């Protein structure tokens, strides 16, 4: 992480039926767009088919946002997630959410 970046938040993009079933061979769009925002996109359940990145598992991608604090890193991660798509993609929307007890 660079100067001023001391927090990271990662969101898992999963197949629609995960954990009961994965997804195989579905094209994934928007990874380069997400990375262009500065997000880190880690491949977990992907494959390369005919020069195209496709799904190949249950936990498909991990999208990480980094920034100076958790709230800003969370915003970056979720903004990047919005740029990635494949049919039935789902992810939790409460990762690193601030709650008051």
Detailed description of the structure:
The longest helix is centred in the last third of the chain and has 12 residues, at 70-81. The chain has two helices and six strands, in the order E-E-H-E-E-E-E-H. 18% of the residues lie in helices and 36% in strands. The radius of gyration is 14 Å and the shape is globular. Strand 4 and strand 5 form a beta hairpin. With 101 residues, the protein is an alpha+beta fold. The model has no long low-confidence stretch (mean pLDDT 93). The protein has a single domain (7-81), classed as Alpha-Beta Complex (Glycinamide Ribonucleotide Synthetase, Chain A, domain 4), CATH 3.90.600.
Task: Give a topology summary.
Elements: E1 7-14, E2 23-27, H1 31-36, E3 40-43, E4 46-49, E5 52-57, E6 59-67, H2 70-81
Tags for this entry?
three-stranded antiparallel sheet; single chain; 2 helices; Glycinamide Ribonucleotide Synthetase, Chain A, domain 4; alpha+beta; 36% strand; 101 residues; 6 strands
Short summary:
The protein is of the alpha+beta class and 101 residues long. The protein has helices spanning 31-36, 70-81, and strands spanning 7-14, 23-27, 40-43, 46-49, 52-57, 59-67.
């Amino acid at each position: 992480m660079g100067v001023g970046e001391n927090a990271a938040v990662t969101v898992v993009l999963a197949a629609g039926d995960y954990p009961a079933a994965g997804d195989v061979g579905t094209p994934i769009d928007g990874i380069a767009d997400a990375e262009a925002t500065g997000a880190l996109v880690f491949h977990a359940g992907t494959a390369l088919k005919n020069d195209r990145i496709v799904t190949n598992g249950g936990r498909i991608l991990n999208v990480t946002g980094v920034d100076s604090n958790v709230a800003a890193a969370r915003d970056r991660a979720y903004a990047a997630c919005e740029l990635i798509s494949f049919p039935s993609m789902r992810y939790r929307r409460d990762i690193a959410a601030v709650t008051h007890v």
